[in-house]
Design goal:
41% of the residues are buried. The protein has 3 domains: 160 residues, 3-Layer(aba) Sandwich (Rossmann fold), CATH 3.40.50.2000; 213 residues, Glycogen Phosphorylase B (Rossmann fold), CATH 3.40.50; 127 residues. Strands 10-9-8-11-12-13-14-15 form an 8-stranded mixed beta sheet, with helices on both faces. The chain has a 5-stranded parallel beta sheet with strand order 3-2-1-4-5, with helices on both faces. The protein is built from 22 helices and 15 strands. The N and C termini lie far apart (68 Å). By secondary structure, the protein is of the alpha/beta class.
Length: 563
Amino acid sequence: MSQNKRFGIIQLTRMGDLIQTFQACRDFKWNFPEVSLTLVARKEFASPLAAILSEVFDEIVLISKKDLLKGTDQSLDNYLEKVNTWLAHDNLQNIDVLMNFSFCQTSNYLNRLIPATHRLGTFIDDSNQVSVKDQWSQLVYSMVMNGPYCPFSLVDIYKNILGCRTDVTKDLPPSLSPIERDSTENTARVLAIHPFASSAKKKWKSSKWSEVIYKTLKDNPELNIHLFGAKSEENESKEILNTSTLKKYSSRINNHVGKLSISETYTKLGQCTHFIGHDSLLGHLAKLHQLPTLTISLGTVRPIETTPYGLNSFVLSPRTKCFPCFPTTDCSFFQCHADISYQAVGEVLNSFLKDGPNITEICKNVSPFHLDSLDIYEFAPTAQGWFILDKQGDGAPIFREVVKDIFRTALSYKLEEVEENIQLAPLGLDHINRLRQISAGIEQYFELCEFGKRYSRFILTEVGKDQPSIPDIQEFGNKIDDIDRLQDLLKKTYPELTCIIDFYKVVKSNLQGDNVVEISESSYIVYNDNGILCSIIFDLIQGIINKHDIKSRKKAATKEGSA
């Protein structure tokens, strides 16, 4: 990469997303130290993290809705004048590549208004429509924002948008380089706990945390605990700590809830040895110190996307059918909360505090009644340096995770020509039958892609004639519209394919071309690419089914022989 390039990153979402953006850019900067990075972020979220963010970003440009609307003159002209003044900021000039990582309406407009030579991520185009040209951003727009089947960590997605590839045969970037700790340091365990989250769906009730803390302190006499949280979480922290069972352990519990700033919290986390909590900013901050982390994922959390990024990250997630849900999903019972018991968490945490969760020991000490409703994962790197959730133990994975692994393998090869050899646990007959159904859906989808190629080619052939028939061209165009409608029907029959179909709907809606010939050529390419992806997914599914069938036949033959 040539010298003195300037990349701009727009990230307007919350603090946890800022840290994930920081982690992606840190690995990118490690690969390309000569590139200057400018971050555009909301003042309310970026200011508390300024000391951390400045370690990677050369400039940080803050935007504040309050500042833009401040003043007695609230006219449109005054507002536009303030926006133009902000856009004239010196650090927003001469940007070579501008990338939108937040995919919201405000950032879409900023990605258009800030001057740049190239733009990635979503932006508002000349026709005032949302446009997204690069494939990894198209994947975010269709999969991350539209269902539970995205198979990649957000940090890895950001790194791929940036064009950051890891060669694990060479020196490793920060996310893959463990800190070498002084062997003379005090080996006593210091556990950081953040038992809170941004919504009720994503966090346990206080009583469960009280039980876990009690068991952990009882079973680990040398352990000290640091409890973290915001000012708004003080009442909940009192509910957790003000129980009779924890009174005799009060000297080993340091309650920091509501007492520390973000920067002070970050410093204090560095004095701990382990972290447990729900999906939140503090898990990401703990991982910046490379603490081993244990995340209890509930409600709307999608573990593969937001697990603290790095080595020694572990996840507990429920096997509940409706997990993960959407923020708008109505739920009063919180079955996913009930499916992760405090007994199981207490035992997993004890094992985690030693050398990482030991499944054999956990199974000895916890009833299957508690373990059968949850999964334990390690967030582990692949040969390419990306991270994946690696299921611990021999139990069959839930079907959603099987589908995600298949999609991940296919998309990795299709988008980056990366071959990821993901090992699936043995699947039961129910999973195999469901894969047969999806395989039938993929075949139908492939046929639709072939029809799309055919009618796109018909249009190109007709346009190339000396006297093209306008009615014929219109008829072929209508056929392509019919294919798009049939794809929508296919999603209803095979909901697991929704994210794949939507991915290529986004690709198709961003076709390149200014006339019927160029658009038809682009349409042909999209249908051809989609057909290739269908073929890869079909082959992967058939490979799994064939392996199961061969094993079943051998097992049946062995039984027959013994009889």
